[in-house]
Amino acid sequence: MFNFTLCGIVNNKYSNLFRFLSQLVVVVALCFLASVLAAPLEGSSTRSLPPLDHEEIHDEFGQFALRYVTAEGTVVSERGHLIPTPDGASYVMVYEGEVSYIGDDGKRYVTKYTAGLDGYHAEGDHLPVAPEVPEVPKVPEVPESAPAS
């Protein structure tokens, strides 16, 4: 009268419920695993020292200049100012700044950046630089051939 599945426990009437519950258990287990893997490692250090020096200036248009220095030697300075868009209809905030920090090797690393209408650009001696694009030779013109007869 009952149609048992391979495991011999669940009959056909409850197989959809069994399938749903087993999928739910798998999803819950994966969520638990993801949360465990995303948790910070015990003993990992985060450097969150308060700034030694902090200056910040704003105006009514949203333009700003800021600078701060941390106890570990990190120096951040940034400036944001408005420039007109190419069509002159509105303004865009352009950012330029510099971040310097002392690495684990004791060297000071300096990154200068700009962000505006032409995108984000960063430069520093420690950053990789894309190779120059080689010049492509011109293809000689091919004379038109006579039409086939």
Automatic annotation (TrEMBL):
Keyword line: Cuticle, Signal
Gene Ontology cellular-component annotations: chitin-based extracellular matrix
Coiled coil feature spans: none
Annotated stretches, region: Disordered: 125-149
InterPro entries (UniProt xref): CHIT_BIND_RR_consensus (IPR031311), Cuticle_Struct_Prot (IPR050468), Insect_cuticle (IPR000618)
Single Gene Ontology MF annotation: structural constituent of chitin-based larval cuticle
UniProt keyword RNA-binding present: no
Claim: Signal is one of the keywords in the record: yes
Protein name: Flexible cuticle protein 12-like
Domain of life: Eukaryota
